[in-house]
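Translate structure to sequence.
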């Protein structure tokens, strides 16, 4: 009801108008809007946000929008690109913007807010790697917003400009100054310019009153940085908030070293690297000029109870740390003499060339149990442990129960645990409750995880203090027999995941064996499991590598009965429908989707032995046409029958060849029928290699070729892009760690644009160029948003790669080195120096080198045969991950020469390196050096 009282028609609040203005180019059908925390900006509901309209000004396109708000209005907000239905297509990176209106605004004023789209690459420097490690000195700057008294000093023609700039990379003792042609901006004299004040979150601000001068001044704030303010215009905004993006200076570039924890060797370890060894590694990194130490996954992988568990990418738990990395000497200050002697003897016994995974782990656990039995009550009743248990019980209690059940049933396959196969909180509480005979077993797992947490936290804090980023690794999968699949079974499909069709990466057709993710189920709580993983990682790391980032776009999924990778499909993907195939003239779906087995094929493959094969494995359903018997109609059934059949003596010496032949028959299809919907089909990978395809008519062949290409290289792109944009932002927003994605191999065209949009740093390995026409990558042509390296843990070292192939070595020497001379057959320090320097000098934000490649800079460290330094052999699914560096960190720290050599490469390439703490930094801020917005010092 309208008020008719004496105050009718009067406003209860002063209102002002906000004019948002953003330069941005969109594609057809796209527009911009603002969503923010206040109702005027949609309360973070994008569909109710403030829509912007395009306005052409000179040769630039601006998006503008106005809204009336109260004079004391404050809000957080972001810009979004949307389609015609206001569905979000992309959003700007970085922290939420914070709008606080200038002081003194009055009823009816117009405040113009000029923003720049926050680019993902600029937002990277607000991540913890930089904010809390490399550039953490900025947090010590006094926060003091400079203000201008505006109530009575403004003339009618005056305009208040609030300058805002993001400067996350300032060194201690710096400040920011705006200079320009206007007298209030110093007439281009730095000493008379407008000094900005630090207000937190890497932002610097200042208010300035600009008065009308002769002509229309243009404030030149550096390359492409200007604010055209027409002071004489009657329609000019009274206030201008100039949010001018990030300070533009030379791109920051850093360097780092990569080595698995298990590969580290020290004077204190028990046959394997330990978390506390990371402190020595950090010291060596600092002395060598490195800002980063990169590790492989460090989660517990104790699934099989043998050396198979050395594979670090198959987690027993995505939260628990691996007991392998425990330093038992640090468990107590009161270790008995006999246990100390046992530790010393273990040191000698386990000090081998390579890691003895089983011996090191069992020895550590045995010693830890002895110390636990002596001090369990003291530790487990401490306030520190109780806090750890309280903060981690969500994963720690199920983990301890799982480990107990795994050992009790002698298998991690929880389907074999009887009534405990199905997890429930009630069963969990019974397993871990006090008073049970096994309660100390449960508490021992708590105890070990507590000490692992304390030791890794100590190393992580030490790294931060030394301005060194610890970079972790996020595996794409978990072991199918893991705590996570037991506790959260609905989050996983118990099919099998692999990276891609076998020919993409793995010539042997082997697969990872991971269950695939049920993304639909995960989305119901906004991917809580993933968010918890990232939150846990962020306790230790300030950067991380996303293993096989393609898995967040799509995964190559195999049915559970498969043993090789050929009979899979992409998930998600758009299948071929029965209607689509019929419209193309393809109708004989059984002929194309069931194994095509004819007598002549059997004779060709097995020779005279074909009759034995047919009698034992096949049924003849019509003359000279065969199908597999029920007990061997999958790959896993074939494997089992070959080993258990009463007739196995007939093929005992030929088992491998027969298995491969039977697999070929089973895979002799051109279409794979969807198990969930029989009217949907997927083209079998490399279908043209099959006799099934060769015996089709020409029309069918041509149609299938076209549909095959469309399925693998065209029709999925938009689906995969949308899939990644659902999941990856959740990961990135779950922590403020710096994220890098492993994007090697055959990459769909949608991947790199999405990574660039989200600020994800890619990986470039010189011997694995993404360009199809190059044999060797050209580091000088890599993009900035990448990590470059001459090798990685999944390939041979630089030395081994150089020495294993003469022809390739000659081609590299000619095309990359630019020499027609014969290259040395041995990878000499000079060769290493050339290749390493190429990477140091390259544009990428990060150059990260395996430790083995760096040690090859000095002859002294090349005595070990190069092939022995390889960490992983991807062609061997049962590879033993056991490489140990053959020199201790203590001895490397004493070698000043190699540290100086590496640091010279860092400094000469212009890459940043950890410097000494600035003495008297607080005093120096009173003698501020000038960092000006026009890019001049």
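Result:
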């Amino acid at each position: 009801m309208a008020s008719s009282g004496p105050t009718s028609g009067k406003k209860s609040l002063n209102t002002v108008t906000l004019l948002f203005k953003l330069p941005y180019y969109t594609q057809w059908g796209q527009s911009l809007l603002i969503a923010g925390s206040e109702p005027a900006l949609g309360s973070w509901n994008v569909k109710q946000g403030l829509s912007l309209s395009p306005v052409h000004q000179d040769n630039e396109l601006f998006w503008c929008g106005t809204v009336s708000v109260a004079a004391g209005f404050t809000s957080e907000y972001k810009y979004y690109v949307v389609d015609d239905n206001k569905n979000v297509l992309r959003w700007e990176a970085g922290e939420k913007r914070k709008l606080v209106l200038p002081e003194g605004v009055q009823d009816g004023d117009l405040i113009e807010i000029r923003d720049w789209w926050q680019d993902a690459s600029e937002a990277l420097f607000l991540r913890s790697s930089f904010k809390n490690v490399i550039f953490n000195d900025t947090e010590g700057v006094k926060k003091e917003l400079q203000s201008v008294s505006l109530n009575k000093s403004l003339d009618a023609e005056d305009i208040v400009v609030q300058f805002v700039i993001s400067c996350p990379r300032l060194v201690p003792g710096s400040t920011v100054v705006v200079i320009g042609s206007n007298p209030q901006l110093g007439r281009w004299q730095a000493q008379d310019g407008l000094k900005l004040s630090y207000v937190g979150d890497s932002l610097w601000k200042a208010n300035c009153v600009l008065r009308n001068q002769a002509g229309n001044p243009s404030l030149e704030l550096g390359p492409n940085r200007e604010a055209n303010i027409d002071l004489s215009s009657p329609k000019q905004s009274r206030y201008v908030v100039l949010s001018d993006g990030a300070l533009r200076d030379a791109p920051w570039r850093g360097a780092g070293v990569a080595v698995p924890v298990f590969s580290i060797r020290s004077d204190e370890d028990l046959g394997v690297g330990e978390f506390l060894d990371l402190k020595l590694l950090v010291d060596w990194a600092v002395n060598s000029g490195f800002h980063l130490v990169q590790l492989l996954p460090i989660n517990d992988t104790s699934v099989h109870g043998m050396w198979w568990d050395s594979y670090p990418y198959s987690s027993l738990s995505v939260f628990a740390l691996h007991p392998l990395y425990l330093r038992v000497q640090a468990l107590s200050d009161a270790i008995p003499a006999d246990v100390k002697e046992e530790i010393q003897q273990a040191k000698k016994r386990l000090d081998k060339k390579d890691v003895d995974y089983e011996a090191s782990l069992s020895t550590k656990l045995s010693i830890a149990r002895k110390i636990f039995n002596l001090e369990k009550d003291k530790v487990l009743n401490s306030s520190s442990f109780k806090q750890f248990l309280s903060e981690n019980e969500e994963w720690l209690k199920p983990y301890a129960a799982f480990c107990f059940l795994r050992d009790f049933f002698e298998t991690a396959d929880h389907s074999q645990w009887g009534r405990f196969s199905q997890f429930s909180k009630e069963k969990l509480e019974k397993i871990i409750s006090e008073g049970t005979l096994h309660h100390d077993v449960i508490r021992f797992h708590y105890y070990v995880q507590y000490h692992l947490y304390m030791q890794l936290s100590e190393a992580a804090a030490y790294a931060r203090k030394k301005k060194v980023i610890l970079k972790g690794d996020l595996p794409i999968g978990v072991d199918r027999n893991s705590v996570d699949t037991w506790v959260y079974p609905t989050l996983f499909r118990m099919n099998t995941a692999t990276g891609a069709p076998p020919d993409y990466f793995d010539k042997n057709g082997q697969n990872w064996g991971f269950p695939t993710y049920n993304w639909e189920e995960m989305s119901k709580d906004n991917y809580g499991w993933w968010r918890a993983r990232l939150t846990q990682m962020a306790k230790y790391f300030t950067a991380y590598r996303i293993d096989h980032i393609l898995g967040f776009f799509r995964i190559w999924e195999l049915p559970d009965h498969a043993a090789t990778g050929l009979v899979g499909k992409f998930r998600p993907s758009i299948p071929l429908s029965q209607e689509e195939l019929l419209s193309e003239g393809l109708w004989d779906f059984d002929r194309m989707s069931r194994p095509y087995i004819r007598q002549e094929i059997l004779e060709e493959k097995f020779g005279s032995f074909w009759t034995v094969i047919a009698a034992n494995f096949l049924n003849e359903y019509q003359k000279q046409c065969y199908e597999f018997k029920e007990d061997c109609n999958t790959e896993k059934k074939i494997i089992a029958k070959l080993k258990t059949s009463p007739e196995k003596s007939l093929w005992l010496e030929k088992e491998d060849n027969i298995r491969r032949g039977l697999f070929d028959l089973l895979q002799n299809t051109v279409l794979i029928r969807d198990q969930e919907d029989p009217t949907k089909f997927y083209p079998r990978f490399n279908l043209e290699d099959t006799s099934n395809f060769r015996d089709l008519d020409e029309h069918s062949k041509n149609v299938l070729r076209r549909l095959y290409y469309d399925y693998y290289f065209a029709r999925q792109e938009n689906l995969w892009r949308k899939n990644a944009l659902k999941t990856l932002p959740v990961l990135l927003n779950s922590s403020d760690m710096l994220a890098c994605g492993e994007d090697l191999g055959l990459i769909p065209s949608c991947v790199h644009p999405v990574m660039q949009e989200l600020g994800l740093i890619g990986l470039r390995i010189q011997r694995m160029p993404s360009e199809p026409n190059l044999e060797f990558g050209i580091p000088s042509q890599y993009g900035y948003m990448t990590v470059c390296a001459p090798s990685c843990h999944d390939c041979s070292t630089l030395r081994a790669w150089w020495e294993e192939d003469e022809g390739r070595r000659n081609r590299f020497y000619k095309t990359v080195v630019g020499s027609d001379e014969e290259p040395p057959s041995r990878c000499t320090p000079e060769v290493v120096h050339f290749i390493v320097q190429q990477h140091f000098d390259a544009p990428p934000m990060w150059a990260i080198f395996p430790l083995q490649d760096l040690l090859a800079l000095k002859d002294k460290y090349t005595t070990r045969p190069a092939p022995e330094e390889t960490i992983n052999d991807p062609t061997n699914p049962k590879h033993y991950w056991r490489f140990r560096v053959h020199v201790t960190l203590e001895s490397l720290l004493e070698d000043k020469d190699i540290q100086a050599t590496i640091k010279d490469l860092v400094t000469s390439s212009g890459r940043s390196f950890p410097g000494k703490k600035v003495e008297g930094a607080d005093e120096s801020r009173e003698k501020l050096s000038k960092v000006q917005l026009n890019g001049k010092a």
